[in-house]
Structures are given as C-alpha cells and as structure tokens.
Amino acid sequence: MDFFEVLRGRRSCRRFGDRPVSGKDIETCLEAARLAPSGSNAQPWRFLVARKPKLRLALAEAGYRQECLGEAPVIVVLLGDRELYRKRVRRVKELVDIGALSPEAWSALEKRYRDKAGPAGEEDAAIRANCMLAGEHYVLAAAALELGCCWVGAFDAAKVSEILGLDAKYNFPVALLPTGHPLEEPQPPRPRYSISDIAWKEEAGRPWEAGTA
Ligand SMILES: Cc1cc2nc3c(=O)[nH]c(=O)nc-3n(C[C@H](O)[C@H](O)[C@H](O)COP(=O)(O)O)c2cc1C
C-alpha cells in the first residue's frame, strides 16, 4: 500500500473479530517500531506482546474495560525503558563511529550530557516522547497490513505495571495498542484541523496559505 494511502486510510479501530493475528504480522509491526527515530538513537522502548486471554482480560480491566481492549486478540503494551535511555551516550558514540554524526557535533553534545542534571521527570518525558514515535510506526505498519489498532492512553499505569510484574525502577507503561482484524466497516475520516489552521508562514500567527509556491 502506498504510504499516503496508509496515512489516509488509518483509523483508530475499536471493534475486532476473533481471528488471531499471526506472529509474522506482529513481527512486521514490531520491525516498523524498531526502525523509529529517537533522540541520541537511545531507542528507550520495549514492547510486551500479550496474547493469552487471561493477561488480556487483566489489561482490559486496567484500561477501564474499554471495548477495544476487551475484543482485541493481541494487546501490545508499549513500555518506556530507563535502562536503555541511560545507555544513550553509547548509542551517540556509535553514530560517530559509523560517520552518521560528526565528531564536532558529538563534542557539543557531550558537553550538554555532562552539564545537564535536568529536573525530575524530564528523563521520563523524553522516554515517553521517543516511545510515541515507535508506537506510531507500529500503528502505521498495522494499518498497512490492514490490521486494526487503537492507541490507548487511558489506563491505570500502576495496575498495568503490577499485572506485568514490571520493575518500576526500569520500566513504565506508555500506551496499550490493541491489535486485531477489524470488525468495523471502513470509517469516514475523523475531523482534523486544516493546514492553514495549524501551519504558520514565517511568523507566529500568520497562516500558511494553500497553494503557496
Ligand atoms: C496518545 C493517544 C491516546 C489515546 N487514548 C485513547 C483511549 O484511551 N481510548 C480510545 O478509545 N482512543 C484513544 N486514542 C485514539 C484517539 O481518540 C483517536 O486517535 C482520535 O480520535 C482520532 O481518530 P483516528 O485515530 O481514527 O484518526 C488515543 C490516541 C492517542 C494518540
């Protein structure tokens, strides 16, 4: 499927059939997620694939019994990983070693890493932002495979951590991604702002005009 076809056709899917999702399709979506960009190439994400009914049921409970969680044959739990994030200096050095980042850019960055203590919570916010990119790669790959998927951000994080036995020192849940074969008819596009509503030209508040050369 053409990339823009995938973008235009994707919808949050909340109704799923029982048909199982193959391991191969799950892996294709995870492969797409793995390729996402991340700050410092830190890749501070993990994906827990839940297919066993008992585990999915528990996750659906933690997600306030949202319909999409109850029906999906797979729930992928997108997790932030502080341990991987802390290895990001190594990841940046790798970029220098392979020539993707210049040694000059690295020395500027190195100083920033050294100087930056950062307020509490900043690190988790950065991890979350990176995870969202990987999650959207996953979602778009699912759409390209004509699988249904829905971002679920409304869940009890403490409960999900407990269900999965996460070590809170290292991992925290960012989102649930119920995945399956859609039971819904193709849905009309959801409302979106127009480009001129959201894009500014050269200065804040001056709308981008359609057809600008
Ligand atoms: C970060 C995030 C969290 C979301 N959480 C939920 C959720 O908890 N439950 C739900 O039904 N949809 C959730 N959604 C889906 C949005 O409602 C949906 O993306 C939006 O209405 C636009 O519709 P579309 O995805 O079909 O284009 C979430 C989406 C994002 C990006």
Topology diagram in text:
Elements: H1 3-9, H2 23-34, E1 45-50, H3 53-62, H4 67-71, E2 74-81, H5 82-86, H6 88-97, H7 103-115, H8 122-144, E3 148-149, H9 157-164, E4 171-180, H10 195-198
Antiparallel strand pairs: 1-2, 2-4, 3-4
Helix pairs in contact: 1-8, 2-8, 3-9, 6-7
CATH topology: the name is NADH Oxidase
Question: What is the rounded Rg?
Answer: 20 Å
Strand content: 5-15%
Q: What is bound: which ligands? A: flavin mononucleotide
- Number of helical elements: 10
Shape type? globular
Largest sheet: 4 strands, antiparallel
CATH superfamily: NADH Oxidase
Q: Could you say how many structural domains there are in total?
A: 1
Number of strands: 4
Structural features, described:
The protein has 213 residues and is of the alpha+beta class. The protein has helices at 3-9, 23-34, 53-62, 67-71, 82-86, 88-97, 103-115, 122-144, 157-164, 195-198, and strands spanning 45-50, 74-81, 148-149, 171-180. The protein has one domain: 3-Layer(aba) Sandwich (NADH Oxidase), CATH 3.40.109.10. It has ten helices and four strands. Helix 3 (53-62) packs antiparallel against helix 9 (157-164). The protein is globular. The two termini are 29 Å apart. The mean pLDDT is 95. The structure holds flavin mononucleotide (FMN). The site of flavin mononucleotide has 11 residues, from loops.
What is the gist of this entry?
With 213 residues, this protein is of the alpha+beta class. The protein is built from ten helices and four strands.
Supply the key terms.
213 residues, alpha+beta, NADH Oxidase, 10 helices, binds flavin mononucleotide
